[in-house]
Amino acid sequence: MSIEHEFIDWVKHLCDPVSPKRVLLGIGDDAAVVDHGDHLTVISTDLLADQVHFILGETPNHLIGRKALAVNLSDLAAMAAEPVSAVVSLLLPRSMELEQAQEIFVGLKELADQFSVAIVGGDTNCHDGPLVINCAVTGVVPQDRDVANTWNMSAAKPGDVVLVSGYFGNSIAARHLTFEPRIELARYLAKNYAIHAATDITDSLAIDLAAVAKKSGCGVKVILADIPLSESAKTLEKSRAGATATIGVDKELQIPASVASALFDGEDFELAVAVDPRVAEKILADEQLPCLLTCIGAVTSSPVFEVVDADEQVVEIFPRGYEH
């Protein structure tokens, strides 16, 4: 476990016992949920830093700003919340030109306008270090929606089917700056179907599905051949001329580089949901879906992460992914 996740666990242990009763969901999920009586407010925040989430000077400035908000909107999608507002804080390098800072904010504002998000405040400072951007967003759960259908990571059930949006693999090289937060998909699913659990795929498909399984007291089994691969992952496969990765806890399994990328690279920002198999069947047959959804496996009663290869070998693996 990385220091990041150890620290989050420590903070959660310190803070959860004193959370007010109005806090329905606190630290440890994609976002927090606060009950205001007549509505639920969903709150999330993400911090991005130069040399970690982007490279200043190599990444177009407007895409830096866009990503800073997009990753937060992805969290709201994972909670099926309607975006409302954002506050934006920037820690700017003293060497940065005003025009660069403006370009960064314009990229953020364009995405905010696309999703009707109001920028309502924030903070700006300068220092001698790298660029750091933090966004905090709020969303609401519509009043006409059953509160029980507010999504979280901890209600998956053994036998549930795992559905994922879009495509996976090599996102950090191709799509992590331009991905579309799955707000529209989440809105549609929440309105029409009972979703047991959900998350967005940030650290990796393996890490984030494992987190859902762990919080739900379950396990997960992923069928490798069913993971939808991005064009970038397929290109990666060709460039590595058949390179493979070795995975497995007690039994080794060789998998293509493209599949390893889809499982472990992270920064895909797609949506994953766990649903009853009968509901999954209806969802997959729904021609009104805003984007592609694919069944890639199931939730299991055994608390391990397993994969199934083309020869139907079942192998337990250690989830790993993008480390900040």
CATH H level, superfamily name of the largest domain: PurM-like C-terminal domain
How many angstroms does the end-to-end distance come to? 12 Å
SSE ordering: HEEEHEHEEEHHEHEHEEHEHEEE
Question: What is the number of E strands?
Answer: 15
- Largest pleated sheet: 7 strands, mixed
Q: What strand line-up does the widest sheet have?
A: 8-12-7-13-9-14-15
> Approximately how much beta-strand content do the residues carry?
25-35%
Which percent range fits the helix content? 25-40%
The structure class reads: alpha+beta
The DSSP helix count reads 9
Mean pLDDT: 90
Describe the protein.
The chain is an alpha+beta fold and 324 residues long. It folds into 2 domains: 3-147, PurM-like, N-terminal domain (60s Ribosomal Protein L30, Chain: A), CATH 3.30.1330.10; 151-316, PurM-like C-terminal domain (Phosphoribosyl-aminoimidazole Synthetase, Chain A, domain 2, Alpha-Beta Complex). The protein is 31% helix and 28% strand. The chain has 9 helices and 15 strands. Strands 8-12-7-13-9-14-15 form a 7-stranded mixed sheet, sandwiched between helices. Helix 2 packs parallel to helix 3 (98-114), helix 2 (61-78) packs parallel to helix 5 and helix 7 (231-239) packs across helix 8.
